[in-house]
Design goal:
Layout lengths: L14 H8 L11 E7 L4 E3 L3 E10 L3 E2 L2 E18 L6 E20 L2 E2 L10 E2 L10 E6 L6 E8 L7 E9 H5 L6 E4 L1 E3 L10 E3 L13 E8 L13 E11 L16 E8 L20 E2 L3 E9 L20 E13 L7 E9 L13 E2 L3 E5 L29 E9 L3 E2 L4 E10 L5 E17 L2 E18 L3 E11 L15 H10 L11 E12 L6 E10 L6 H9 L52 E5 L3 E2 L15 E2 L2 E5 L6 E3 L8 E3 L8 E3 L6 E3 L9 E4 L10
Parallel strand pairs: 2-21, 25-31
Antiparallel strand pairs: 1-3, 3-19, 4-18, 5-6, 5-20, 7-17, 8-16, 9-16, 10-11, 10-17, 12-15, 13-14, 15-16, 20-21, 22-24, 23-24, 24-26, 26-29, 27-28, 27-30, 29-40, 30-31, 32-35, 33-34, 36-37, 38-39
């Protein structure tokens, strides 16, 4: 989600923002007879754990020689920066780049063969279903026969620049597999002995490399189910679609070893339908159609596809302004990408950017515990130099010369706590605490969210890190001299920002255990190039002194509001917290210009779809989530989209905002009488459109309540409530 927009063009709202949300298609045909080639999705935002379903709309006016039409779900986190070293003629630029794939599952929409994802460096055993690509072993395949279908499965070793090696093959009876109702089946593999010119011409069992005098039999583990997708290119009446779920392949021979040096196979499976006589296990099977002579005929087709999003993906993130100051560019970005696979030619392609929203529910048990910080108390001293500093020749206000500890101005005390640890955008944050000022001057208390971004990139064999911090103001209030301010359950509104991500995605203990069981190679994916976290900061600013009191509390910004049942029970325990007043002094935060808005998302026209999670979701039960959008982001890939106008590949990142039952009101600054407008969908600090003038303005915080301020002369001692 965009973290601000300082120094940029005014954001787009309404229809303009929504057009960016749909993400325009790139039109690069590379001389092929293509009239229309685009990706169609019902919406451009998805929650982690959902299934992305859509269609490829393809219209051609001539045949295309190709190996197939591929579609891929891509998720990549990246950061890049540069610096200079040396001087004079030896001065040079050093670029530092960090990247991590969060998803990279590719499927065949149409082709001579239908392939699984490829597992690089798999070796003897390949296990599909990595947490970043949970359905990389799923092959949704159209069959031209309604019954008696036969499919050949080949386990292959990918070789760049040369023909791929066959590691083994088997014949699958589709009706027999479907009768097992999705149960896993272990199927032995067969192959032609030898390789290339060294082939003996003998067709027999496929075996792995010799181990302790024995060559183990090569096998593949899979299941088959009816497909939920209907139709597709070339789909004929009476045909059907099935899904083959390839789980693993074991005891594969080493096809990349050279002169006794061990190699590691890059393993994938290809499937294709066959027909005819003499089709039986143990007999030589017909090969796939020659990819060089396969032609995509002139057509107008709608090809379905689907991808399962992992449940713990990081949310889409586009850090800008102060958060991106240390780097040239950084993002966590997802897209659906398709290309027509043409041998030794540039592939026609299209891309659709999507937003992924993730994060736990804000009412999971471990987030409901109160959040406290260590109380802070300090004796305040004046500065040594009240005006012009004779030491440094300027008004340092004690920053260099320090405090005059021989004189005491009194003490200040600060102790605050939050009602819980997790909050979703749009939810109410309840702050309680006490601020005591025993000095003879008023002090100001500022409440804000401090967001920290950590960028990690690799330079050579070492990792380099840069950090950026930005502040999201929430409220401020003044504590007069010799008085104590105290409040219970003062209301703040969580701004619309992406859920926190602490890194570590890509390692899964259960998947690692499966690999260890078979001895398969598996390691955690690379370090995260972008991580971000949030703290709530309460700062007491003592004027004309070099000292401030600070309290930090680690809050978790989540992606989903709380389970309504759990939330209701939680609120009943809080003695009517929903009726408590807003944080005092909040009205002092006047609306700011958009260029000054640091760290707060810009909200356009929000849409409120009703999202009902699947049965496996344990936290949320059918909440209504309001999808708020930021201004458009240019998302063209400089390598993949080399012939595309960057302005054509834009999208509007989405954030799920909690819609409260009771509407929130604020006042428009553009009319003399400041009429009230409905700002329910726009948290304080966000941008909205004035319905009377059509002008954008920043939503101010809630009005100030009657805060309880007690004079310390009347009550010299004050206990914490």
């Amino acid at each position: 989600t965009t973290q601000g927009h300082a120094g940029r063009a005014p954001p787009k709202f309404g229809a303009a923002a929504m057009s960016g949300g749909r993400a325009k298609m790139k039109k690069v045909n590379w001389g092929q007879p293509i009239t229309d080639y685009r990706i169609v999705l019902p919406r451009d935002y998805y929650f982690a754990g959902e299934t992305v379903q859509g269609t490829l709309e393809l219209k051609t006016h001539g045949p295309i020689s190709c190996r197939g039409v591929r579609v891929k779900l891509e998720g990549v986190g990246m950061c890049h920066w540069h610096y200079y070293e040396g001087s004079g003629d030896n001065r040079r630029r050093v670029d530092v780049h960090g990247e991590k794939k969060y998803n990279g599952c590719q499927k065949t929409a149409w082709g001579s063969t239908y392939n699984t994802g490829r597992i690089d460096n798999a070796g003897d055993d390949a296990v599909w279903g990595h947490p970043t690509t949970p359905d990389e072993g799923h092959v949704d395949m159209p069959l031209q026969t309604a019954h008696g279908s036969k499919v050949v499965l080949r386990v292959m070793d990918y070789d760049w620049g040369t023909k791929d090696d066959e590691l083994g093959e088997c014949l699958l009876d589709v009706d027999e597999l479907l009768s097992m109702n999705g149960a896993d089946v272990t199927v032995p593999l067969w192959r032609l002995a030898g390789k290339g010119v060294f082939s003996s011409g003998t067709y027999g069992p496929a075996e792995g490399d010799m181990f302790r005098g024995v060559k183990p039999r090569s096998v593949v583990v899979l299941s088959c189910e009816p497909s939920e997708v209907e139709g597709g290119f070339g789909f004929q009446q009476g045909a059907r679609r099935v899904v083959f779920k390839i789980k693993s392949a074991h005891n594969l021979r080493d096809a990349d070893g050279i002169m006794g040096f061990r190699g590691y196979n890059d393993v994938y499976c290809q499937l294709y339908e066959v027909s005819g006589e003499n089709l039986a296990p143990g007999l030589p099977l017909p090969g796939p159609p020659d990819a060089n002579v396969v032609r995509l005929p002139p057509t107008r087709a709608s090809i379905p596809f689907s991808f399962k999003l992992p449940r713990n993906l990081p949310s889409s993130m586009e850090p800008l302004d102060v958060f991106a100051a240390p780097v040239d560019r950084a993002s966590v970005r997802y897209c659906v990408y398709s290309h027509i696979d043409i041998a030794w030619r540039m592939d026609p392609s299209c891309r659709r950017i999507i937003s992924v929203i993730n994060g736990p529910s804000s009412t999971i048990p471990k987030l409901l515990a109160p959040l406290r910080s260590v109380p802070q108390e300090k004796e305040v001293h004046p500065v040594k130099c009240e005006s012009l500093c004779f030491c440094c020749g300027k008004d340092c206000v004690g920053r260099l010369c320090g405090e005059n500890t021989g004189v005491s101005l009194g003490k200040v005390f600060l102790d605050c706590h939050m009602d819980r640890q997790g909050y979703a955008p749009g939810e109410t944050m309840f702050l309680s605490g006490i601020a005591r000022n025993e000095t003879d001057r008023p002090v100001t208390v500022y409440v804000s969210l401090v967001r920290t971004f950590v960028y990690t990139a690799k330079e050579g064999s070492t990792h380099k890190t840069r950090t950026a911090r930005g502040e999201i103001p929430l409220a401020s209030f003044e504590v007069p001299a010799h008085s104590t301010w105290q409040l219970e359950d003062g209301q703040l509104i969580c701004p619309a920002i992406a859920s926190d991500y602490f890194g570590g995605y890509g390692y899964d203990e259960e998947f690692a255990r499966r690999n260890a069981q078979y001895g398969a190679r598996y390691s955690e994916r690379r370090v995260d190039p972008v991580k971000w976290s949030t703290k709530l900061r309460v700062l007491m600013d003592v004027p004309d002194t070099p000292f401030n009191l600070k309290q930090f509390m680690d809050v978790l910004i989540t992606g989903l509001p709380g389970n309504p049942i759990v939330w209701e029970e939680y609120q009943q325990k809080r003695k009517g917290a929903a009726q408590m007043p807003a944080l005092p002094g909040a009205q002092e935060m006047s609306p700011r210009r958009s260029g000054d808005d640091i760290g707060v998302s810009v909200l356009g026209t929000a849409e409120c779809p009703t999202w009902t999670p699947g049965a496996e979701d344990e936290q949320v039960r059918g909440d209504t989530l309001c999808i708020a959008r930021t201004d458009e982001i240019a998302a063209a890939d400089p390598q993949e989209d080399i012939k595309c106008d960057p302005a054509e590949l834009t999208y509007s990142p989405a954030v799920a905002v909690y819609k409260p039952d009771a509407p929130r009101k604020c006042r428009s600054p553009y009319k003399p009488d400041n009429p009230e407008v409905d700002c329910t969908m726009n948290p304080p600090g966000s941008m909205m459109i004035c319905p009377y003038t059509g002008m954008p303005f920043v939503v101010p915080p809630p009005p100030s309540p009657q805060a309880q301020v007690i004079s310390t002369f009347a009550a010299p001692s004050m206990s914490m409530v």
